[in-house]
Specification:
Helices cover 60% and strands 6% of the residues. The protein is mainly alpha-helical. Helix 2 packs across helix 5.
Length: 156
């Protein structure tokens, strides 16, 4: 969808694009959570070999594929069903698809998750795309037709 059209729709619906700092904080929270899951999966092996750092490092370095699979599944399912990962929920931002302004469908959430994880694998360089547009679309958002927005706070 045309960025000007997206901006027009967001303005009409009074939706704000998520602040960059919130996206960074959410990213850090999510990475810490996924890392804790991976450490939990290998905890027994790590604690049994605590005296042998070479074995511990070997165990951790051999888990990179599982780390990326867990990352993809975590982001895919949370964005699909909640519109946000735990990190995004904490900082009150959400992923929506640009067409219906609702949670991304299964395909969009999977594509976004896969490309987001690939961006991490590529030393975060594709994330720099966020700095090139007013909607703060990352490359994975652009391809999946999604956008990250601020959640409205309601005063009761």
């Amino acid at each position: 969808m045309n960025p000007d059209k997206i901006e027009e729709i967001l303005a009409r619906e009074e939706i704000q694009v998520a602040a960059l700092w919130k996206r960074v904080v959410a990213h850090i929270i999510d990475d810490l959570l996924v890392s804790m899951v991976i450490i939990g999966m290998y905890w027994e092996s790590i604690t049994q070999n605590v005296g042998n750092p070479e074995v511990v490092l070997n165990t951790i370095s051999n888990s990179w594929l599982i780390l990326y699979v867990v990352h993809i599944v975590y982001h895919w399912l949370f964005v699909r069903y909640y519109g946000a990962t735990i990190g995004k929920i904490v900082v009150k931002i959400k992923v929506i698809e640009t067409g219906l302004l609702d949670n991304p469908n299964t395909k969009q959430a999977f594509i976004r998750s896969l490309l987001r994880t690939l961006s991490e694998f590529l030393i975060y360089l594709p994330f720099l795309y966020i700095l090139t547009n007013s909607l703060r679309l990352s490359l994975h958002d652009r391809i999946a037709n999604t956008i990250v927005i601020e959640l409205k706070s309601y005063n009761v």
